[in-house]
Amino acid sequence: MNVLIIAVTASRRVGVASDLDALTASGANVTLLTSRVDAWPGLDPRVRVVDLAEAEGRMPLVSLLRRASAAARGLLGGRRAATVPPRPGRSPEPAPVPAGAPADQGQDRDGTVGSPGPSRAMGSGRPGPGASRSRELARRVYRGVRPWLLWRAARRSVLPALDIDSMDLVLVADAQAVPIGWHVARTHPHTEVVFALDRARLAPGNGPRMPYGGRGPRDEAVAERGEEWRS
Amino acid sequence: MVDTLTVVTPWFPSPAKPPQGSFVQAAVRAVAGEIGRVEVVHTDEWITPAGPTGRAVESSYRRYAARAVRPRLQDDGTWLSRVPALVRPRRRWDVHSRTVSRSLAAARAGRPFESAVVHGHVVLPGGLVAVEHAAAGARVVVTEHASFLADVLVEPRARDLYDEVVDRAAALLCVSAVLRDQVLEVFPHHRAKVHVVPNPVEMAGPPRPDGPPAVPRRWLFVGSLIERKGPVRLLEAFAASRREEPDLELTLLGAGPQRPDVLARVRALGLDHAVHLLDPVAPAEVPQVMARHDLLVHPSHHETFGMTPVEAVAVGTPVLVARYPAAVEVLGAIDGLGGGTFPVTEDPSVITAAYRRLRDGWDRLDLPRARSVLARRFGSPAVATALLSQYTGSPETPAAPPREGQGAS
Question: pTM of the entire structure?
């Protein structure tokens, strides 16, 4: 059985890690598509991890925004930094991470901080107040187009290599993966795209009890009771 | 006889959070054998970004959620649908609840629940989802067991929405009289439909195979590692007790934001070899863990019911429990039989003193009798009877009696 798990962030890491364990234990071939490769240390070596952030960083629009941000920083940031003091109460430096906080604490909850764009994908120079403002502007622009960009990055360079048609199951594992899941569902209507793994259909140790999308005795029973219920 | 039941809940055990909503699962299993078909709809909260990204996520979700959410047959014969609820953090309770309801509407493509009875857990959001998605003519029952109820009711719009949900429901069940009084304090006009139906605890299985423990050597804490539950207080009390009895051990079964504090305190107190920190396990495994320990210590400040001590007594493990109001209500009848109690406290020495008293009277405990007393009130058959009578609309459990100076409205 071939399974693709899309977890753009690490916001549901515990559950996803548990699903990964269950799938690998059942003998499934598992691919994890994520933009937070660093958030999954100690994964079973049988899990293939595909870095979406890398593909995202290669998108032309990201390069463009990065250059625009750098130019604005050079023009506006430099000039303002020389002439305008920081506004009272506003630090140009990023807020410090509390001591002892996990590396990704709070990062994924608003979907921006710590994500591959713009703070990571677009780089960060020494921030003056103007630079900070231009970076915030770039961040806002980027936030608006990111779902589309992620899908474009996935479609252009990631999904073709994964061969979605060969997947028995695509598991959408967090909110930021929902748009990619939608595009996969739309372009591969015969591929099963779900939000939760049905472990009852996995056999421990000896491969799947039956492939997802196939039918077996249990499926028949499920379908029968399901029809009975709907009628 | 109820043919079909849909249970809507924001909490249900999952691989990510094994113990979350174990009481909901227990309630479902208590009645499942008496109902033709039971479906659990777990509105699993997925934190969603704000702004354009969030709107794109919601837009995509609406387009295929109905295809991607499928009920799955569970080993216990019930059906389970996990529905991502695209929520944003730190929203008002009314906004949060309506968001959950909107996600469910997308996942069901607007179809109402077909069941004759819909049972929502937690008025906001489970009750709101239940009343908004129940079919015309369906009976809606809502159970309240939110420990954060005071935070909900302090918000004016959430309070209005709460009032509306209770108004539309046929019955509101509270898991303890303490919680019922909290609800009636704000909504006295709903007195006629407010009942107390406790959480069920499975007591059909045999108690611990080796009988009641001879000495309280192995302590156990089960619960989230949060301030309210008191894991750090317990550590301090344990350290003091261990100075008198160096062979004492403590296991903390749980996870939560206080985990770093707990680990730091364990190191500072030099308890590395005496304290074991275990990750949460599935509800079915908790009794086995309890049976491997001699004493459950529960120093919580507040619970709406307090299921853990009841589960411990069910397997024959004595308990040492803080006297928060629900504990007095639930465990009052077995004080001295199933264990001991102490006042709600910040002071670890109070727990240590209570432990000494319990240890000195250890031989006077009567766990089989305590178990029997609790089984009559909280055993699955007793609670199932109460739930089924609510589902059929012929409640055997009386509505809340009028309090002094208040008439029924």
Answer: 0.81
